Fold these 2 entries.
Entry 1:
Amino acid sequence: METLIIILTGVLVSVATYLFLSRNVIRIILGTAVLTHAAHLLIMTMGGLKTGGVPVLGEETSTFTDALPQALILTSIVISFAVTAFLLVLAYRLYQESRSDDLSELRGMVNE
Amino acid sequence: MSNILVLPVVIPVLIGIILVFFRSQIQIQRWLSLASILSVTGISLYTLNMIQSEGILRLDFGGWQPPFGILFVGDSFSLLLVFTTSLVAAVCLIYAFYSIGEKRERMFFYPFVLLMVAGVNGSFLTGDLFNLYVCFEVMLLASYALITLGGTKPQLRESIKYVTINVLSSWFFLVAIAYLYGTVGTLNMAHLSERIAEAGQTPLLTVISILFLLVFGLKAGLLLYFWLPGSYSVPPTAVAALFGGLLTKVGIYAMFRMFTLLFYHEPAITHTIIGIMAGITLIGGSFGAIAYKDIRQIVSFNVVIAVGFILVGLAAATPAAIEGSIYYLVHDMLVKAALFLIAGSMVALTGTPMIDRMSGLIRHYPMLGWSFFIIMLALAGIPPLSGFMGKFLIGQGAIESGAYILLALSLISSIFVLYSLLRIFLNCFWGESTTSEEEVVPLSKGWLVPCVLLTAASIGLGLGAEFVSPYVADAAKTLSNPYIYIDAVLNK
């Protein structure tokens, strides 16, 4: 199970990298979203997948599910939600201002 | 247990949220934000003195004992940086009162500044690795908003790069945390340090530490500084000064914590890589600083040089070098903010950022000119100004550890710093004035006073080294002996 999820993470990372390297702003934003999902899957896998126990550690229980990765992922999802929302608004403002969503048309300043 | 530790984070957050509801009452926004930042300054100074008598303080949230809960840990290093942060933020706020403009003030400028300060303070104080990530994100989200506030075309263009590169580095941060959690099974920094010391720093852990180095290198602009000059030169002056003074320093702080508390067992690998990165940063920053004619670019590249310089201290890793780095970190926060404020004022007064189009400014603005001159000397490390102690101790540490190439690079970079700023001074302040008496734009006191305040703080830090040195020495002692930190967190 762990191996499968790690391979899935790898696929997501390569998809995200492909999207990231494009010149289109919307694709880059989608890339960031896919990239964070890959990280979430990785964190979940690191905590160990499905051992069949409840996330409570008692004296009598022998197996338990590590609840910490879930808490980390939840926090990270909220943060990535905020960042993605911000990026979308930013892309929209950029389009309004420059009538283009192509990064190569937004070259930096020149040194005279 | 000491509840005072949470105040530097909670006060700015709460006031920031309250201020959202006072959008149109600008006077309330101004005075409340300044008052809250000043109160944080006072609290951090009080806490700093408390640490000297009572040792490292800690606060377990919800009463969860470490290593199970999230906690704040206050040692001298953290509190020294929290104090400097609030000082710089207060001065930048005063500058913003007179320069930022009503339009931005109505668009939640002050709440964003307060949230950013809260994020910075949280990063300094937290004792949990994932909490560090969260505080970084709080700080970064506020900075995304601040860099785009106003929505001019250059701002939007640079901010899309800034946001993307930071999302990427945050992703690496998450991945590194995941690997570390999978390997060691804890995220409490003191607990991590203990477990790594017990099990030995295996090659796997060293690779993870390099991943952390990459993350904080991106955030601090160590070697990976390509995004920095562009994004630091577009926002309004007060924001640029906050960025230049505070943001990269958080990355530097995190690197110091990581490589003195957790990954200090393999200096032959990690600290050598840090040394190489610092050396290249010094070279690249020096070339950048003399290559541009845009004053904002020159100042931004000076930030890069300082990052390289401070990390030379970490690469050398002797107690003297670490003490020097702490000294230089505090000095650099004050002085870089001053430099950005003065450069921004010059651009606003003359209407051009190009240094060959400014001339003879000192005739009309003598105080601004001499402040710049003093700041320049402080950055070059002339005694008795504030840069001297740091440069001296880092140099001493580099000699002790035999890093002669780094020593040479850091000394040569000081000459480049001096040259790049002297070029601004000679071009812009010296020479014949090109504007006639009637055309001169008067310099408002609200612009001059913050610059002079920070210059005075730099002189004070240099002359008052006697008063500052106990705190710096204590901070360096804790960094050099990780067991002081671990004992304070786990065995109290």
Note: The CA atoms of residues 10 and 17 of chain A lie 10 Å apart.
Entry 2:
Amino acid sequence: MIDLLQLAASEAKAPVIDYRELSPLLALAGGSVVVLMVGLLRSAFARRVLVPALSALTLLVAIGLTIWIWESGDREPIIEGALAVDALSLGVSMLIYVAGLVTIVLSLRALAPEVAGHGEYHSLLLGSILGMVVLAMAENLITLFIGLELLSIPLYVLCATELHRRTSLEAGLKYLVIGSVGSATLLYGLAMVYGAAGSMQFGEIGAALGGGGLSATDPLLLTGIALSATGLAFKSSVAPFHQWTPDVYEGAPTPITTFMAVATKAAAFAVFLRLFDQAFGLAQLEWGPALAVLATLTIVIGNVGAIAQRSLKRMLAWSSVAQAGYLLAGVVVGSELGVRATAFYLAVYLLMNVAAFAVVVARERVSERGDDLAAFEDLGTAQPWLAWPMTIAMLSLAGFPATAGFIGKFYLIDASVEGAYTWLGIAIVVGSVVSLVYYLRVVAVMWMGRYEIEMPGPPRRIVRRVAGTSPEADARAQPEVAAIAILFAAATIVFGIWPDPLFEAARDVGSALPNLR
Amino acid sequence: MTVHLSIVLFAPLATGLLGAVLPRGWARWSVLAGTLVVLGYAMVMLADFESGAGGLQYATDDEWIGELGIRYQLGVDGLNLFMVVLTALAWVPCTLWAAIREHDRAKLYFFNLALGETAVLGAFMAQDLALFIVFFDLMLVPFYFLIGGWGTGDRVRATTKFVIYTLSGSLLMLAAAIALGVLSVPDGGELSFSLAELERRSIPEGSQHWIVLLFALAFFVKAPLFPLHGWVPETYRSTPIPVLALLSAVLSKVGVYGFLRIVLPVMPEGSQHWQELFIVIAVFSILYGSIVAFSQDNIRLVIAYSSIAQLGFIVLGIFALDDKGAQGAVFQMLNHGLVVVPLFLIVGVVALRSGGSESLRELGGMAVRAPVLAALFLITSFATLAMPGSPNFVGELLVLFGAFEDKLVYGLVASAGVVLAAVYMIRLFQGVMHNRLGPRAESSDLGGLELAAVAPLVAVVVALGIYPQFVVERSERATLEQIAAAKQHAESRSGPELSVSK
């Protein structure tokens, strides 16, 4: 093996590999393999305790390494321009690691790892995280595609890990089929971009547009941009390519839904920012209006779709579609402020969605009504420690002040207005008004007693008791889920009142992309 | 003497949080103590206030969110001094009213009351546009919970409607405010939402037009004015009495206050552009509110629609863009608040004596064995209909003088509202207190604590009727400063036309 490498090195110029900057990726890849191996051990302790612990350790190591190599400003990409290890990719990968840690904790008592095998489940999770980080770091078209596939394929499997539930299998299959269509579209688009620009490198594509002989109205390039936007829109559930989202979010095991909702979105928007604002930045006048229309459409469709949902997972899925629309506004303007606002909102989005999903996980396990709204009736009296985080998450998603969601929206509207897209700012606002209908419904169900909803509910189902004795015992038997919910809800409030740390990180992220307005 | 506005601002919230950790049953007294602290501070401010001095007093100015140019900037001048006093005066009796009754989840109830006071005080004292919006929207949260959690009837529907109506206005205002901040940044300048800074900067007149319109939308919904009052009937029917008193007395003032604090001084051209439209809306509200109030059977709704008319008067006074009109509007903002709180508390007393009925058809004859109740009700009713000798008389008179000055026709139409007010208020008073004893009514006088909640405010109303100068003197200078730019603009517009007609 070593001989072969030497042989290769002697004939071709081998790329210089910066192991320091590559270290988080190496940690993830190594961790994924180790976890898979440990999962093969026969001892229940190894499978149930050691595997999650090692997975969490891997992510903690990756977080540590990321902090170690963190630097702001425009950085030279590593490995012959394949990966950009800058504040944008590192910042987004931090979000992904946190989402991964949350998923591991939420999966501790979940059915899916039991059924699918702890080693496999966690190894796939780490593999998917690796793919997301590669995607966020992608600096050329090839690594972009590799990252996207590496994140998607484990997710297809993870969606289907509750093997005995038909909806889980359906979710996996649906995600596989639609995700593949998206990947194919993206690949096609990337090929066209390469054909037009004659380079795989984002930097060189940008240079070609900036006086390198490539016109911003080149039909091949524009078709390529349109197709790659479509491909990425599939991944980040931007309308009209969002139809898979509610079904897949509902069918997948809830910890995986949480992971998909926050981590996939973060990775997809990182590459959206890098590809569009950096490589295609000078063609912003061409794609900007088109993406702005998509963003508006997404905001409208997501918010209207969420109104008719009783299932909390479906509701949060539609809400995530709407939030993708808000996030897209930050991409559209193509300015440094837009990049910062998008990054800021991604972090806020993580906080409030994790809080909400953790409560859904907690209720779904013990309630006969699953994730239906009825399962949340009178939660304010019965389990205030779950009702408060959910309330804060809903108010933050709706954009009430004193929550991070308000400041996130403020920032996005600011970026829209500054980028001469005032009407997009108004679209965000109008979307938020519509969203009140369904966010406040959840709050009302929890605090304001029995609340009749004019929609047919699901049949009661038999639940496997977590603690095995009574609903009260069940409620106390999963403290880690409540802890996650409380922690992230508290962070939502703290960053709503004192957002400076997030702003500083966002500033670093914004400085990673050069030559922005 | 220095008054730290941050202490005033956060005292209620702090006592609300304290109440949440204290043993059950203590929350009410903790929050009541908080409202008393605010009242004490407000009285100190009132005594200490230098009416001759211009500008802000007790100002606080710190950076809050540097990235977005948002400052934590508080200050009091003659314009908002009496709004702070009104808030302090209104919250004490309403909290007392709530404290002498039992509630489910009392800790949460009183926490929400306390949070509400902090948010309202914040909106009144904020000198930064973004900070104002933060508190303006934050107000909704406690009121959403109070109405939805402790209301009556179809309360969830009512509270959802209330929040969606109000927030659709105020979120559009948020977008408009951000646009205002961004568009006014001079070359090389920093984004700022400080009101003083925004006044110095100039915004293109074309942008002012739509920005003013979005602000007005938010404020008209909050006030509420015709035709944006769709949330009123359901919300007023479902809201618990002390909360309703606060909603009607204080929250409605935040919107109209916003015109004087933000819209007129920052965007004088835009305000002048829509002057005619806003006056028409105000006059329509006066007529519509008065006429509908007359046809209501539910006593809450009589007062609700009468409030729409009263708020119409206030907006008329503001947009007359005249010194007297604006002064009248500011005075009337205080008067309406001071009168409505006892009025709604009396409605609560009446409902308690009638088995929960608030229908005029089922009430009547309550004055027989309740002379004190009847007297207090009579005084507040007379004040509402602007009987000479009441402060409302002075306020409405000033407003009408202001309107006659330049907008004579509108002033004449609005005067009809004064007459109509007499009709519906006397009908209300007679229907409840006189006539034959209603089928469900029971006549018994106010209890000690009920009296303690209602009587002091009535005394303040009487005192202001005797000595209105107390308010007008202190608020004069600040009020005139706020409308000066818009007034000047209006005069420069109408100047050439006048010379032609001469």
Note: Chain B has a mean pLDDT of 88.
